Amino acid sequence: MSVMPEFLSSDQWISHLFSSQAAREGGVIRRKVRDVERYVGRGPFLDEMKRRGFPVVENAGQFVIFCNCEPIRRVA
């Protein structure tokens, strides 16, 4: 992902998030919960993920975003 500009609105931050190659190709991306809460807010962020149909898991201070609508299966 490219360097973040000094100021981004929440909409710009979401757009920047999904401009990464992994996101565009339906891959997996992760972001620190702290950063999501600072730039967008937890509620609006999760609302946007639901709107897009992307599953999100939280672990160890990270949001893991699956940029596709495939099912998630825990294997271990």
Overall helicity:
25-40%
Radius of gyration: 12 Å
* Strands in their spatial order, largest beta sheet: 1-3-2
* Measured distance between first and last alpha carbons: 30 Å
Approximate strand percentage: 15-25%
What is the overall shape?
Answer: globular
The H/E string reads HHEHHEE
| E-strand count | 3
Query: Please, what is the average pLDDT?
Result: 92
Query: Stretches where pLDDT falls below 50 for ≥5 residues?
Result: none
Question: What is the count of DSSP helices, taking H or I runs of 4+ residues?
Answer: 4
Largest sheet: 3 strands, antiparallel
Structural class: alpha+beta
Description:
The chain is α+β, with helices and mostly antiparallel strands and 76 residues long. Helices cover 39% and strands 18% of the residues. The chain contains four helices and three strands. It has helices at residues 10-17, 21-24, 33-39, 42-52, and strands at residues 28-32, 56-59, 62-66. The protein has a three-stranded antiparallel beta sheet with strand order 1-3-2. The protein is globular and about 40 Å long.
